[in-house]
Amino acid sequence: MDKKEEKEGILWKLFWAMFALSACTFGGGFVIVSLMKKKYVEELGWLKEDEMLDITAIAQSSPGPIPINASVILGYRMRGIIGALVAILGTALPPMIIITLISFFYVEFRSNPVISVALQVMRAGVAAVIFDVVINLAGNVWKTKRVFYIGLMIAAFIAKIVFGVSAMAVIFCCLAAGFLDLFLDMGKSGKEA
Amino acid sequence: MVLLRLFFSFIQVGLFSVGGGYAAIPLIQNQIVEVHKLMTLEEFTDLITIAEMTPGPISINSATFVGNRLAGVTGAVICTLGCVLPSFFICLALAYVYYKYRSVSGVQTVLGALRPAVVALIASAGLSILMLGLFQAEASEIVLSDFRVIEFLLFAGGLFILRKYKVNAIAIIFGTGVVGTLAYSLMP
Fold first, then answer.
1. B14 shares its domain with B86
2. Most B CBs within 10 Å, among A40, A51, A68, A115, to test the B interface
3. Which of A62, A92, A129 shows the shortest C-beta gap to B162?
4. Closest to A126 (Cβ–Cβ): which among B15, B46, B129?
5. HEC string for A65-107
6. What's the total number of domains in chain B?
7. pLDDT < 70 positions in chain B
8. Backbone angles phi, psi at B18, to 5 degrees
9. Residue B62 and residue B151 share a domain
10. Does the beta-carbon distance from A124 to B155 stay under 8 Å?
11. What's the Cα-to-Cα distance from A43 to each of A11, A36, B51, B79, rounded to whole Å?
12. Do B161 and B97 share a domain, yes or no?
């Protein structure tokens, strides 16, 4: 009985957490991923940081909206297929409700000066949240003290910002680097054996 | 049966938009404006503006908007369902494979190289939004004289509070919204 209640409790928590995160993800997939990291890794302790990064990579390289992809994987992790369904619902409902409300008076919405100022200044808050998450994440990559990982991180950042390489291409290049690392590793341990 | 056709249109959008919101825009435009002629290009541009101003993925926003217009809430639900269906099955399969094999040491080695890349991608997304906030322009076309002091103070203050106290991220985002709007209304 207690176990069943606990399971339902997690589903509710999952739904409301996704609902709240989705309601304030201005600015694309990586914003919601930063918020998810804060919520599920730091606040609730449901996931390990590495796991969240893996989920992000999978969500980014699968077709479909990144927030939806990430919630399917995260929901599946917590409570299987039901968890995935609950997480999708939590993520999809806020934009559906907001767009439905706005579609009744969207001309007024688009030209309202207060709304446009609020949306503009909120970007500063969103940026602060992402930077907070990035400082922690980059610090942990730094702590591995592996030149290979730190180099990959810097190279990926420069490729994206300076050369405008797509996120997909960055992920696939680093995946290739990972396989290379694996083969070098196997070569080494083969010699030792 | 427009609704059923639209359902399949949004399945295609969900299936072929790899790499986030902006990749989906041309696909949605093709389906809604060119194939089904449900909107003029001008209305579609308005829709994209609204989608960018509101939370949520662009494809879900457009599916809701188009569906609503055609058949009210039912339409919105059907179109959104089409949009998330491919994600659901594909990511469920990937999640299954990931959780089955992730503890294998070779898999860990490969994923290890992927994580720094993800950190870099999140960082670059953060930088783009910061530039958009501070200069109201993309990172590649900023003009230094457009620098906005209020947004900078909000960013610095928000980051300081987040680092120093464990504050809820959502509170920070809405907090900057309220404080910033007040600041702009007090000094025009």
1. yes
2. A68
3. A129
4. B129
5. CHHHHHHHHHHHHHHHHHHHHHHHHHHHHHHHHHHHHHHHCHH
6. 2
7. 19-22, 139-140, 188
8. -95, 130
9. no
10. yes
11. 16, 10, 29, 34
12. no
Q: How many of the other CB atoms lie within 10 Å of CB of A80?
A: 13
Task: State both tokens at B186.
Answer: 């007090």
Beta-carbon separation of B86 and A64 below 8 A: yes
For residue B138, the chain A residue with the least C-alpha distance is: A161
Same domain, B16 and B67: yes
Structural domain boundaries enclosing B178: 105-186
One domain for residues B112 and B164: yes
Q: Which residues of A touch B74 (CB under 8 A)?
A: none
The residue to which tokens 């709007």 are assigned: B181
- Contact (CB<8Å) B111/A178: yes
Written as tens digits, the pLDDT of chain A (193 aa) is 466 667 778 999 999 999 999 987 776 678 888 999 999 999 999 999 999 999 999 998 888 899 999 999 999 999 999 999 999 999 999 999 999 888 777 778 778 888 888 888 888 998 999 999 999 999 999 999 999 999 999 999 999 989 988 888 898 899 999 999 999 988 877 665 4
Interchain CB distance below 8 Å, A134 and B136? no
Alpha-carbon gap, residue B46 to B151, rounded angstroms: 26
pLDDT tens, residue by residue, B164-174: 988 888 889 88
Render pLDDT for B1-45 as a digit per residue (tens, 0 to 9): 788 988 999 999 888 877 666 677 888 888 888 888 888 888 888
Contacts of A42 in chain B (CB under 8 A): 166
What's the gap in Å between the CA of A133 and the closest CA on chain B?
9
Quote the tokens at residue A169: 């291409």
